[in-house]
């Protein structure tokens, strides 16, 4: 009996390592930390956004499952530089490529004039597991209005509160 337990335990240990270096098959945004942090205090409220606080919108992009074509409400709107970034999470998860979005105010010591493609910066954002403190490489940058939205998940029917960030062209 002891021998059987030892064999089963050994097999479990060996198999647990299989695939450890393989890319995960789930959507990177499945580990979003909604409501995990307040909007950065130094953000500039948008003066003339297409969608205003309280407006009903439809999300046209699916950053994560249940998001595309979801009905939502605008909670906040800011004008800033917004970045698509790639980074290695601090928690040891697989590398995240082309994450949308991180705003200028969520990057340590980012200039008000914004960063450019290829620049690197430390993230202070914590809206994804392992994001805070990770070094981001800027894949793309836009100066635009960004939105915080509440929306009804199209897969679960649950309300997702304070999703950060959506760009104006991802809403209708």
TrEMBL record:
At the highest ranks, the source species' classification is: Bacteria, Bacillati, Bacillota, Bacilli, Bacillales
One family name in Pfam for this protein: DUF1541
Q: What is this protein called?
A: DUF1541 domain-containing protein
Which residues does the UniProt record annotate as the domain DUF1541?
53-103, 117-168
Q: Which Gene3D superfamilies match?
A: Domain of unknown function DUF1541 (2.30.30.1210)
Enumerate the PROSITE patterns for this protein.
PROKAR_LIPOPROTEIN (PS51257)
